[in-house]
């Protein structure tokens, strides 16, 4: 009996002695769990101080150029490897541009009443066919000095220049002139794209890309921190926006005001400005944006101010009641204010009564103008910070 009791006591003792390491393991696990919980809490708290900006707009509105400007202005920009990665993009852009112009000249020569002015010179047709074939490839070759000379020759053909003047009906990119003026540099063996080249490069946005920045500086103490999302603007990309709609501090909507006489890339029967109008209306009606501020960027003003003298604003159905009143800068300002008023009316018509007092600002922008983009985002930052103070009851 005594020996049995001794065995039990001894067994209990050995059991207790084995518990000690287990308790230490539990303690270590608890400490690790506490650290994880603390980190999650810190990250959650940090996330609460990051404002979500959603960059929306139709295709070709200049959204992605603004996105790249933000990287250059408020982040570290593009390193050499990233710049080099744009070489093939820019070469492809050049080939695609000259293809659009050559194919467009052939189309206009067949269909326009005064068709002779669109007929490319006989000695340039072979070059045109060759470049058109290259431009249709999925993988374009590097741009050589020899090919660059051929592109210059075709570009200087009077039929191609005449076609370029009708670029609004042919999907000629806005950066066509820039590409043609820089062909010699682009064709250098050791060519590395500049920041300006990258801004002009055209890569259609698919899916969602994001960056985090502060318009005032890297330190959170010096300004608000924003997370900016850029999404594809073409119709088939818009379904990918939906999951980003919740918790948005502000919607930045880009409208290319120079495109009132152009058709969509994906639907050549639809006016781009009408598409922008309908898209803006749709975004305004989304219930998830009822508390979000709206920043409207009336973009591509640099192209607009040149075009409005050549192409009447009332060619667009939405602007059919426009009446010109002068010339020069006066006419440009008059036309711009008319377009601005149209968007203002659209905003208030499509905002619920309890949403009309949310922050709404309109900015005149040119995405390629770095100084203007910097100034604009600092104004956006001021507007949103003021809004935060009002909501917190501090103003």
TrEMBL record:
Would I find Methyltransferase among this entry's keywords? Answer: no
What are its GO cellular component terms?
cytoplasm; heterotrimeric G-protein complex
Name recorded for this polypeptide: Guanine nucleotide-binding protein alpha subunit
Give the CDD domains listed for this entry.
Answer: G-alpha
For this UniProt record, the keywords arranged alphabetically read as follows: Cell membrane, GTP-binding, Hydrolase, Lipoprotein, Magnesium, Membrane, Metal-binding, Myristate, Nucleotide-binding, Palmitate, Transducer
Give the protein family: Belongs to the G-alpha family.
- Entry function: Guanine nucleotide-binding proteins (G proteins) are involved as modulators or transducers in various transmembrane signaling systems.
Cofactor(s) required, per the database record:
Mg(2+)
Indicate the segments annotated as coiled coil, or none if absent: none
Summarize subunit and interaction data from the UniProt record for this chain: G proteins are composed of 3 units; alpha, beta and gamma. The alpha chain contains the guanine nucleotide binding site.
| Residues bound to Mg(2+) | 64, 205
| Compartment(s) where it occurs, according to its Swiss-Prot or TrEMBL record | Cell membrane
- Residues binding GTP, per UniProt: 60-65, 199-205, 230-234, 299-302, 367
A molecular function (GO) term: GTPase activity
GO biological-process terms attached to the record: adenylate cyclase-modulating G protein-coupled receptor signaling pathway; gibberellin mediated signaling pathway
Domain remark in the UniProt entry: The helical domain is required for self-activation.
InterPro entries, from UniProt? Gprotein_alpha_su (IPR001019), GproteinA_insert (IPR011025), P-loop_NTPase (IPR027417), Plant_Gprotein_alpha (IPR002976)
């Amino acid at each position: 009996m005594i020996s049995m009791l001794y065995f039990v006591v001894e067994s209990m003792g050995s059991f207790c002695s084995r518990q000690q390491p287990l308790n230490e393991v539990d303690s270590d696990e608890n400490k690790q769990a506490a650290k994880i919980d603390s980190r999650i809490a810190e990250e959650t708290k940090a996330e609460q101080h990051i404002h979500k900006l959603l960059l929306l707009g139709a295709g070709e509105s200049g959204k992605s150029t603004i996105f790249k400007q933000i990287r250059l202005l408020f982040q570290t920009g593009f390193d050499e490897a990233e710049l080099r990665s744009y070489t093939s993009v820019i070469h492809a852009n050049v080939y695609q541009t000259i293809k659009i112009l050559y194919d467009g000249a052939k189309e206009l020569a067949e269909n326009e009443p005064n068709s002779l002015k669109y007929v490319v010179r006989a000695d340039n047709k072979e070059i045109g066919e060759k470049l058109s074939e290259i431009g249709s490839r999925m993988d374009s070759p590097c741009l050589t000095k020899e090919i660059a000379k051929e592109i210059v020759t075709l570009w200087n053909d009077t039929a191609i220049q005449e076609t370029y003047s009708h670029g609004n009906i042919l999907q000629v990119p806005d950066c066509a002139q820039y590409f043609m003026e820089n062909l010699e540099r682009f064709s250098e063996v050791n060519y590395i794209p500049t920041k300006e080249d990258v801004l002009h490069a055209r890569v259609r946005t698919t899916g969602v890309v994001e960056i985090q920045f502060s318009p005032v500086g890297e330190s959170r103490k010096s300004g608000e921190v924003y997370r900016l999302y850029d999404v594809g603007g073409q119709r088939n990309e818009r379904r990918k926006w939906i999951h980003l709609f919740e918790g948005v501090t502000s919607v930045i909507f880009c409208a290319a005001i120079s495109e009132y006489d152009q058709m969509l890339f994906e639907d050549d029967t639809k006016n781009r400005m009408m598409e922008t109008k309908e898209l803006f209306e749709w975004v305004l009606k989304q219930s998830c944006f009822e508390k979000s501020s709206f920043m409207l960027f009336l973009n591509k003003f640099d192209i607009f101010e040149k075009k409005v003298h050549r192409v009447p604003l009332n060619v667009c159905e939405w602007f059919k009641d426009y009446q010109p009143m002068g010339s020069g800068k006066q006419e440009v300002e008059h036309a711009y204010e008319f377009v601005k008023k149209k968007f203002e009316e659209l905003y208030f018509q499509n905002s619920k009564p309890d949403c009309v007092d949310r922050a709404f600002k309109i900015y005149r922008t040119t995405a390629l103008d770095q100084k203007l983009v910097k100034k604009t985002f600092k104004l956006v930052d001021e507007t949103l910070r003021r809004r935060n103070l009002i909501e917190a009851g501090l103003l």
